């Protein structure tokens, strides 16, 4: 039996055809909630069957014999690059087929929750985007372009992070490149948040200020610095990473976060009576961001209990959850500000394409060039290291 035929045998979409036939019966009263629950259960069972049988399925690659999905291993069996401080087990095998890493999102390993947390964040953001599109004309109305640009950057951030963690153990080159793309997503999202905050969350007294006029150009520069600095911290530092590496990351991210938060901080300073309702949400997202930074830089709780949080409860997972709460509270606050924004002088001036989508495209090009350059730097360095080992 060849591989394609084996996969077909392992995954027969009977759950879809059975359900569709039941729905089409005239005597059947269709209940969407029941159908979704039943469909999810059947799909999960089919997936479990696929993963269970995939241990028996093998793929011939060159002269090697590589299992489609293999049990995880300890840190001693993977390259130093893939190892994490205070994480002992749950490592996926490198140099497996791409499909192995896609299937591994249903497997228990130490990156699984990192993948799922930001995959859930991605789905939540898409859901919020649909809600906004039902309420506003996100494309036809230029006044909604800042919101549209910001939502696109948020989706990109979650997508880049999800893919980076999903394929992080494929190879050393893929690991480096994946996280370069992850850092690009963070920088682009920083610009998107800058565009949103200076468009909708700014106080009337700042409308004609230099900060407002320079907000997007400076946001592009700071977003590019996030991508470059975080990439440098990844490429030119080796495990075990020194604290200096975190300074490169936290410093660059903290810089753009401070810049995008200035309109909020200005309103907090002026709101003496506490009547600005949306500031509750903005303050909440700032608190969650501070907590995210704490868990990102502290390695708590696994620092005190090595090997106990390899699968669930790792600080990076908590960091991801905090980021989800940051973006959700941010959108809650922005939504209220947009309603207020329609009644302020800010609504008179239409945002331009270059202040919104154009800025995002420009930064994306810069980030792509950064990834391309450093990808080749890493590729060259790894090639030299392999020659030395031979």
From TrEMBL:
Keywords on record: Membrane, Metal-binding, Transmembrane, Transmembrane helix, Zinc
Domain of life: Eukaryota
Protein location: Membrane
Pfam name, any one: HlyIII
Annotated binding of Zn(2+), by residue: 165, 316, 320
Family under the similarity heading: Belongs to the ADIPOR family.
Source taxonomy: Eukaryota, Metazoa, Spiralia, Lophotrochozoa, Mollusca
Assigned GO CC terms: membrane
Identification of the protein by name: Membrane progestin receptor beta
InterPro entries for the chain: AdipoR/HlyIII-related
Transmembrane spans: 144-167, 179-200, 212-235, 247-266, 357-378
UniProt topology in membrane: Multi-pass membrane protein
Keyword Disulfide bond: no
GO MF terms, alphabetically ordered: metal ion binding; signaling receptor activity
